[in-house]
Design brief:
By secondary structure, this protein is of the alpha/beta class. The chain has a 5-stranded mixed β-sheet, sandwiched between helices. Strand 8, helix 8 and strand 9 form a beta-alpha-beta unit. Helix 1 crosses helix 2. It starts with a helix and ends with a helix.
Length: 307
Amino acid sequence: MYNHLLTTFLMVADTGSFSKAAEALFISAPAVMKQMNALEEQLDLQLIERSAQGVRLTEAGRSIYQNAKQIIAFSDEAIAQAASFVKDKPWKISIGSSLLNPSQQINSLLEAILQKTNRFTFEIVPFDDNHETIIAVLHQLGSTYDIIPGSYTSNTITKLANYHELYKVTFTVAVPRTHRLAQKSSLTISDLFSETLVSGKSTFNQPVGHLQADLAQKYPAIKQEITSEFYDMHVFNKYDRSNKLLLSLPQWKNIQPNFVTRTVDWNYQNSFGLLYPLHPRKAIQQFLAAIPENFRREQNTHTNKND
């Protein structure tokens, strides 16, 4: 009922720092700055002054700060009063599901939450995750979709959504069945020498980009080919008849029958988790808060055993 950018503004004011506010809100510092710029633009007011020492409120900012707390308190009270009439109504969470990132990936998480509380009901909403439509899907977070499971660490995505990491997964390699390495049950780094490893477009600060740079420096005998930023079935179909290897993830093991997935004796990892809106509604916040504390540890143990 109120502009949710006010929550970010209050956190910035209370901490005196974009980075500290970002840490408290579980988002990135650039995302905090972007939200603050958006709020100032909407209000046509300068609320904070930036300096090397941090941020401080302008006179207008101090006025907004005092009133914002009252606005939020009044809004929360109004919602609580309305909710009292439907207090037994469950929160519905819409889960985006696609071929590469199916909702089944988080079945164990959903079961753990339902064992903990009966306040949630889940709706599965399919989407096509090809690289031409994924951005449009991300813009629908908070409307059509509440959460989308998967391994999302693209710089583009971090600008459009929040990300809740559940656990780490070790990169695998998808090998065409006609390739000589398909006969091996697992691979070593040296197996990749003289081979071409295809991976997505990335930057060094992301897991894929780090892997690309590290391989280029330590193992120049591995040839690399960069494809599109977002994987889709087109990528798998493009390379299934090639003599090239495709950087992959454990959850894509059975995604294309012309590939076999093989583990590699390396420690390069990606994140697996949930995309959710930059400004999540209460139901999504409650869903994230309901994730059992031991879920991450149990999943990490299970994943390591499977690697």
